[in-house]
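#structure-requests
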Amino acid sequence: MNEATAALGIEAISVYVPRHYLDLRDLAEVNGVDPRKYNDGLGCLRMAIPSPYEDPVTMGWEAAAALLENYRVDREGIGLLAVGTESGVDAAKPVAAYLHGLLDLSRSCRTFDTKHACYSATAALRHALGWCSLPANRGRQALVVATDIARYPVGSPGEPTQGAGAVAMLVSDRPHCLQLEPYPEAVYAEQVMDFWRPNYSAEAMVDGRVSVDSYLRALEYTWRQYAGNSGLGLDDYDHLLFHAPFAKMVHKAYRRVCQLQAGAGTEPGAAQFERHCLPAVWACQELGNLYSGSLYVLLAALLERLQERASGARLGLFSYGSGCCAEFFSARVGPRAVHWRGKIGLEAGLLRRQRLDYQTYLDFRAAATAFNRDGSYWQAVAGWGNGQPVSFLGIRSHQRVYATATRQPAQALEYSARARVVK
């Protein structure tokens, strides 16, 4: 990052938590394994489960609409909407196009999606920072949304790490929540088949051992690079946030950083880990993997949990996307918690959600698969929405149909190539 972006960062942040979850003890019982394998071995306690009427579009809307309302953002000031996702709903049309219409943003707003597995939201954030740094865009804001559903085959090793949710971030030259530090970038890229999802599959494929090795290799490279560029070491950070496909991966990452700092064989103490990582990692334990939103929900968790104690703290952040691309960067939390207090929505979302039994979890999966087939719209109408403000109602004539709570299903919003919104 250059000096032109030194005063840029995240002005506002908001999180959407799906309204249902599955307790990993229930999944362990069905799979015939000791619950400690999931709770202790993976660090996973519960995983967020979207309803059949939720998809990356509706979840992204939930997070972004709450941000616009809670922080009283003028929609006309938003000139860019970038969505980081690996759960796109169309091979050509971006999630950002749907969100632009549902959020009623200005026509003078650039929209697009970014894709690089879990790195995609960081790619979107980087583009937004660059856009905000241009003299012509000073004073304008960019909206970055990370929205994903992590889904693996039933009974697979990846199933207990599933999750879902969305994080919305407003990027500007008023970085009340987080100001990125202007040190040179530390980036790592390598073509590796550690995690992927072919176009013909609704579920991801992963080589767990290769993925962990690739993650740690990228972390080591970017940590060394950033330390060399910035002069910052482990003791210079108040907190460290690592991409968290599962909570124990944060332990592995922190252990590797400590070894890079103090030598091979170094084992970090519990108090050391608690200070650097624990204020944030609890969110991953409750939600599971948010893919593109994984790193940024940890940021939200830290801000909500620490409030004033987070003010002014220096954070080290590691973003990793399988395939792979990774980045390490640092930032300072804003000086006044009043800017985000009571506006993020993470803990409130956790308190609101309901526990599913295992069979209902399977029913939700089956219904979601059915709703994503052409002709499903008429099947979806009968029980539409379950009270959600914006709901996905299925597909008719190869077009996705969404409805808001202020409209009956017969008046649902349909999107076509001819107009932004057609009633």
